[in-house]
Amino acid sequence: EDKVVQSPLSLVVHEGDTVTLNCSYEVTNFRSLLWYKQEKKAPTFLFMLTSSGIEKKSGRLSSILDKKELFSILNITATQTGDSAVYLCAVHDRGSTLGRLYFGRGTQLTVWP
Amino acid sequence: DTEVTQTPKHLVMGMTNKKSLKCEQHMGHRAMYWYKQKAKKPPELMFVYSYEKLSINESVPSRFSPECPNSSLLNLHLHALQPEDSALYLCASSQDRGETGVTGNTIYFGEGSWLTVV
Hints:
Number of helices of chain B: 0
Helix content of chain B: under 10%
Distance between the termini of chain B: 36 Å
Number of strands of chain A: 11
Largest interface: A-B, 25 and 25 residues
Order of helices and strands of chain A: EEEEEEEEEEE
Radius of gyration of chain A: 14 Å
Strand content of chain B: over 45%
Oligomer: heterodimer
């Protein structure tokens, strides 16, 4: 059973659109939630969220965490073709000293010109 | 500098070959990871080293053998692999400050090594 569920699994939009990607999770000992962008290579770190209600922002990307409802969203405004990628959500479980990182299956975002 | 360097970027090997993947980081991180990623799937954890000791082995077959020579280096030795082992192998690192280091939880990935077993 997946501990981290992302939706939608894929999304096709046109340049300039705004998109919202969802990530819900169920881990016993939540430590942090991370968003990554993956093109045809390794995941690139975007955000780490640990506290509810505090928005993290980087340019056109922003993300927020709701620890009560156990989800996070990643917003991308004014999308560009370069935003096309798989966006991975991962949750760090503090179950051990080191903890484990559980990945969702990702959202494939395609931005058409 | 948040760089994790992996070599080689591409590797083609036969099922009887012995090869190694290498990973290096100079961020002072004390936790290093190997992940395997198949096409259109999320990364799957293989091994975790903490302070140069193997702390997690996710029931990986013995044809994959990790090694951590020092705190900056992580190797993955490959022997007698199968075609289904073809995948992107990702190395990652994190500070590993334990319970008190919230900001140390960020895990940084290398660019990966594309492995093809023929």
